[in-house]
Amino acid sequence: MARRLRGLIGGVIVSAAVLTAVCAPLLAPASPDFQNIAQRLLPPGTADHLLGTDDVGRDVLSRLIFGSRVSLIVGCLAVVVSGALGTVLGLIAGYYGGWLDGAIMRLVDVQLAIPSLVLAIAVVAVFGPGLVKVIVILGVTGWVLYGRIVRGDVLALREREFIEAARAMGARDGHVILRHVLRNVIASVIVVATLQVGAMIITAASLSFLGLGVPVTVPTWGGMATEGRNYLPTAWWIAFFPGLAIMVTVFGVNFLGDWLRDWLDPHLRV
Hints:
By secondary structure, the chain is mainly alpha-helical. The protein has helices at residues 2-22, 24-27, 60-96, 98-112, 116-127, 131-141, 144-157, 161-168, 173-209, 221-228, 237-264.
């Protein structure tokens, strides 16, 4: 019952975040870039500014709503890139073994030796900020988890009777991998991908907080937190609400991922 409740809460939070991102122009009370110095640093609850304004008079609620777009886009697309790359390499390593397996696993070991955030910061610092660059960099630096999990599942599957039967009937490796192996590991990939969305959102927010994410002209939750850190004693709301949005969204994604893992694994349904 508790698992289902967490899944329901996670689903509601994720659905609300997605709906907010899609309908941002309709939900935002003002333009996220409109500045009014005469109304700078207004506290939450002020007329026409439910969550207050920032240091240049921009509406915090509007920027928060539009910032959800960047966070979800980066989180979801980075997971797609890393999941696809890690799944392909994990399938190759687990199915063929030999020197291919050894080379891919050594690459995994090297990448795991460097913290993912540090690696992302280094790569972004070299190639520069930008939405597409951040998505690609997060995807390339986050594939190792998928690769290890898929490889482990494939190692157990490739000796199963139905795989041997498909080979005996003359099926090519590509057919066996796509038709029989991938279909049996996709559940694990989906669960990991769901849980990794939250991690990608946090990493993207961290890069924006450090000024290495998307351009500063684009409203992001991490960028808003950066802008508000100098005003914490006097205007706490500038950084508080973006941080709260990140926390709630990540909790929702993790709750949904936990429920999805339990639902896809028959051993955990009891």
